[in-house]
Amino acid sequence: MKKEGKEVVKEIVEFIRNKCNIAEEDVAILIYDPDGRVLRFLYPPDLVDAGTIPINSPDSLAARVFTSGKSFLSNSFQDVKHLSFFTKFTRDKRPLLKLMAVPILKGGKPIGVIEVSSREPTRNFTEEELLSLEQIGEILGEKLEVGL
Questions:
Q1: Which of 108, 111, 118, 129 is the most exposed place for a label (fewest CB within 10 A)?
Q2: Where are the alpha helices (DSSP H) in the chain?
Q3: Of 33, 91, 17, residue with least CA distance to 66
Q4: Please, which residues have CB within 8 angstroms of residue 148's CB and are 6 or more apart in sequence?
């Protein structure tokens, strides 16, 4: 990824962290790689080389958000079928309990996904936060170059 793209991602992550009052590793940004038909992590750094997610994966929430273009919010995420593999690469090993995910849009088409999670039982995400995250996904999509 070009330097400008890394700076944009870092600024967006900081903005999300401050707005949602969450830890740095609780934000993930994935971008679509059309050559492999997979999503790959742009953020967090610990997951950049951890692997990719096929967009047709039935167990991946990120893949479902990407292919449907629809946002997702759950405050009981432990009950949602999803890939938990990537939590092995994070410093905090507690399970994800809450999650919001939105498509990153460029020209109205999904080019990636933003996921915001929480491991705190008392932290619930709101519809207002989901709407804000959707707007951030649109802004990020316009700033990122496809084919990073």
A1: 108
A2: 3-20, 61-68, 127-143
A3: 33
A4: 1, 2, 5, 31, 42
Tell me which amino acid residue 72 is.
F
**The model's pTM:** 0.89
Q: What separation in angstroms does the CA of 35 have from each of 2, 18, 142?
A: 19, 34, 21
Q: 71 is written with which tokens?
A: 């946002």
Q: Work out the number of other CB atoms within 10 angstroms of the CB of residue 69.
A: 12
pLDDT tens digit sequence for 104-137 = 999 999 999 999 999 899 999 999 999 999 999 9
Q: What would the pLDDT profile of 18-54 be if each residue is shown by its tens digit?
A: 999 898 889 999 999 999 999 999 998 888 888 899 9
